[in-house]
Amino acid sequence: MKKMSISLVFFITSMLLVNAQSGGMNLSLDSAKIVALRYNKTLAKQGLSIADANQTLWQTIAQGLPQAKATYNYQDAMGAEITLDMGIPGMEPSTIPIDPTNNLQLQVSQLLFSGNYWVGLKVSKIAKEMSVLAYKKTELDITKQVADSYYAILVAEETRSILQESLINLEQLLKNTETMVMVGVVESTSADQLSVQVASMKNSLSKVNQQIELAYNMLRLQLGLGAEAPLSLTEKLTNLVDEEAIAYLMLEPFNIHQNINIQLINKNLDLSKKQVAMAKTNFLPTVAGFYSYTHKLTTTSFDMTPNNMIGINASMPLFTSFSNCSKVKQAKIKYRSASIDKENLLDQLSIQEKQLRFNLKSANESYKIQKKNIEVSNRVFKNISTKYEQGAASALDIVNAHNNLLTAQSNYISSVMELLNAQSALNNLLGKK
User: What per-residue string of b and e applies to 400-428 under the rule 16 or more CB within 10 Å gives b?
Assistant: First the structure.
């Protein structure tokens, strides 16, 4: 099943890229998240951190495995000689020339005991686990960012649609009003008021178009796409509001110890604890064994050094002017600091959970209210428009009704955006992509 899931994700992302190269990428919210998890550059860089941690772990492991090295040595005393005087009367001192030496040495060593090594190995393993957790946290953050950008685009496009429809209606009203001014039914000030409203609407529409382009560029960046990559969204803003899913989310329990931030800080606490142990190992000896073989290519006539050598090197600190004691105390201070960070984070997450659930509940209630409000505002505007055409309402009445409708529509869209963002934030806290 896992292989099938991976194959399905690969197939989806491949098809999306084919569509992008052939003239555009059409993305649902879920497919946008899949593309981001595959091609987001921040996530790719975080993945390299895992590879780097793997290499660091292997380097640490390798320090405790057998080591071998070859050394070549050539020495020439430049014609120097050794004079031997035995001190015997009548015996002349003898001289021995120092011939050039030419050696090839092979040495194999093995670490036998080192407290620093074993603790360092555990530290490297924890560092690797932290890099994996950091990658998962980045995944959660990226999917939330993609969702937020996706919502922002849909909100801006929905706003544009409303403004375009309102502009068409206002332009038609302005045209009708200008006709009524020509026949003397209404005063020219009515046409002037509507003309200002039309100009203001066009300016708002221009600003929204700029916001849409900016939001698309932000989404492209999160998806790992180029600035000119064709992109379109297949979801509709209101279709993303699932009240049943929201109700279920409100009841979903929060296991604080499964939160990715808590898992990260737990690993950081483990790391600080190992740092204390590592500081203590500075008081312990380090023992290593070795064997060396020296092949003497050329040597002096009085060379007495053996070809084979085996031995043990042991070192232990005796007095460091209390430097090691200070390191232990410093490591303990950092461990206590990490413990306080964890307690603080637990408190913060508990408060954040309550706040996010409250935000979601409040946003859901606001959404329902604004949904009803927009229906009422639509009926009022249509009623005033009919009266205006019949001469029973003034241009100021129609402008006010139109502004009230725009406010209601804007509040409704904002409530949808607020609801989706609140849902996204709670999902992120619960560790759901």
Answer: ebbebbbebbebbbbbbbbbbbbbbbbbb
